[in-house]
Amino acid sequence: MILWVYAWRNLLRNGRRTALTAGTIAAGLAAVMFGQSLLRSFQLQMIEKATGVMLGHVQVQAEGVV
Predict the structure, then answer these.
(1) Residue 61 belongs to some domain of the structure
(2) What is the domain count for the chain?
(3) What domain range includes position 47?
């Protein structure tokens, strides 16, 4: 429990460093999320382009598949 008191006191004592660290973590997390969503959209777009070219207007599927 006393460790939390020391940690909290240190965060309050160094406010500028705490804000800079929190901002850096938030910016890094936002960059990772943006990169992952960008890669996922590229992947989905490539799948759509590949299947759109290869598939015709008629698809043969097993009975019961929608």
Answers:
(1) no
(2) 1
(3) 2-51
Asked whether the predicted pLDDT for residue 55 surpasses 90, the reply is: no
Q: Region 28-35: what's the mean pLDDT?
A: 99
Give the chain's length: 66
Higher pLDDT, 65 or 32: 32
Distance CA 30, CA 36 (A): 10
| Res 23 pLDDT > 90 | yes
41 within domain boundaries? yes
pLDDT for the residue 37: 98
DSSP state of 59: -
| In a domain? residue 65 | no
The number of CA neighbours under 13 Å toward the Cβ of 56 is: 3
Give the burial string for 30-41 (b: 16+ CB within 10 Å, else e). eeeeeeeeeeee
Question: What secondary structure letter does DSSP report for 27?
Answer: H
